[in-house]
Amino acid sequence: MAQDNEQTMESMDRGHSMNSDEVGSSAGPPRNRRLFFYPFILTFIIMCGTWVLLSGKFDAFHMSLGVISCALVAYFSSDFLFSSPKPAGLLSKWVRFATYIPWLMVEITKANLHVMKLVLHPRGMDMIDPKIVKFRSKLKSDLALVTFANSITLTPGTITVSVSLDGDFKVHAIDKASGDPLPGEMEQRIAKAFGEE
Amino acid sequence: MDIIVVLLLFAGLFFFTGGALGILRFPDFYSRLHPAGKLDTLGLLLSLTGLALYNLHHFSVGALLTSLKIILIVVFVFLASPTATHAIVDAGIRAGLAPWTKGEERR
To answer: What is the reported pTM?
Structure first.
């Protein structure tokens, strides 16, 4: 599952950069031979795990095909997956991010139950009060901002309308209870997960 | 084991039902996206976890791989669903559709 998380976060970043043109994707750093090594190995391991999972065949032919193609893909694209190749901080960064996921799941469940209550309540339509909340986030890096934006959209009751590069958020909140806690605890946890405190 | 699977499936169905009801009941485009985009995501998580567990009934490597693939579907939906919801809202705002506020007539 740790591998899944790593992929999860990266595709989140890429998907979002493509989709909202306000968050520009950061260009990869120039290739330095020593710094290139760690991202390559990590990408290779993740790729191999995905290959075995998706192919499900363990004979020599399929495994060697997998190793060859994983090495090729890792060689071409390792600087996409790990855009800041500092070998020391890399692993602890993913570990810290992995501890953020369970907390997010709990928040999603709580928020889902809240929206369910609004939907099923007989006077629910009087209780909702949609408005656009604007605030400025103190997060700095693109990846942290994108994770924050996607986490806001994942928790029901709030949808990110737009994010700017300096961290100006516009969020559509369905009622007061959903919109008021922003940015709040989630921002602090993301700041901690990305080491921005 | 079977009891857990049934509970998970029913919980998933509960959230799917809530999502469908929410689309019908909420007053405008933006507020409808809340149940449509997200109650579905949790419903899918619960029901597919149930299916992955059910698939492990007769344990083998093949069954395990199939279950992991089912979990992989959940992961991808968790990425795609908020991104799509955000894209739709963004498109709506850019096209100039003003969000419904309290006291207006429902659209």
So the answer is: 0.70
